[in-house]
Design brief:
This protein is of the alpha/beta class and 256 residues long. Helix 2 links the parallel strand 2 and strand 3. Helices cover 43% and strands 15% of the residues.
């Protein structure tokens, strides 16, 4: 029996799928019945994840992907379509950080962050939408694009100004894309996670500063990576047919 959030019959594409949230989403979508395409630069990791998914009875494909390079994105979608057909559910998840006070962060690092976190999201979403529209999404209403934001987009602090601004930027980008494609059957929504221990933070939470940050959260804990599962499945599935242009905070109350 299919659940309301079933992805059976859908193909999902996760950009930034080699670790952390992206790897979690790939496994989650595969278990929900989707054909899953894992895009990342670290293809050794995505190949291992494909093998794991296939051992569990899923269908998966690893494709090399540099979200800052439009040609790489086009090639990734081409490979996905050759294997599984149209990509219906897209997750723009790839991201990098540039920690440090703004007066100290090197400008080349700032450019890398903006190219990945903003331009990369734009290119991944745009290419997916082009293909969905060409495949008849206007009539089928089956296009689903989920952008991974961050609660930092709504906070102020020290040490992540450019990262926070890039996440605020893609939030507004998502609403504009949702408006642009609202009659084309392509829904675009954003999820803002809180602080979840993944590779991007390194060993920060083991330091005194990291422990102090956790102590400052209302529930005195980091967010569980599994806490995003239900919302991710909802946005990727037919259940969210009437939801577009939304940005949802799922952060265990950290930003309250």
């Amino acid at each position: 029996m299919e659940t309301p959030f079933s992805l059976a019959g859908r193909t999902a594409f996760v950009a930034g799928a080699s670790s952390g949230l992206g790897a979690r989403f790939a496994e989650l979508f595969a278990k929900a019945g989707a054909n899953i395409v894992l895009g990342a630069r670290r293809t050794d990791r995505t190949a291992e994840l494909v093998a794991k998914i296939e051992r569990q009875g899923g269908k998966a494909l690893a494709v090399p992907l540099d979200v800052t390079d439009e040609a790489s994105i086009i090639a990734a979608y081409d490979a996905a379509e050759e294997r599984f057909g149209t990509v219906h559910s897209i997750v723009a998840n790839a991201g990098v950080a540039a920690t440090g006070r703004s007066t100290d962060v090197a400008i080349d690092r700032v450019q890398t962050l903006l190219d990945t976190n903003f331009k990369g999201v734009y290119l991944v979403a745009r290419e997916g939408a082009k293909r969905l529209i060409a495949s008849g999404s206007r009539e089928k209403e089956n296009g689903r694009i989920t952008i991974i934001g961050s609660i930092t987009s709504r906070l102020t602090g020290e040490g992540d100004s450019v990262y926070a601004a890039s996440k605020a930027g893609v939030t507004h980008l998502a609403r504009n894309l949702a408006r642009e494609w609202v009659r084309q059957g392509v829904n675009v929504n954003t999820i803002h996670p809180g602080y979840i221990p993944t590779e991007i933070q390194g060993d920060w939470y083991d330091t005194d500063g990291g422990k102090a940050q956790i102590a400052g959260f209302h529930r005195r804990r980091l967010q569980d990576i599994a806490s995003l599962d239900a919302m991710m499945l909802y946005f990727a599935s037919d259940a969210s047919r009437c939801v577009t242009g939304s940005d949802i905070i799922v952060d265990d109350g950290q930003s309250l």
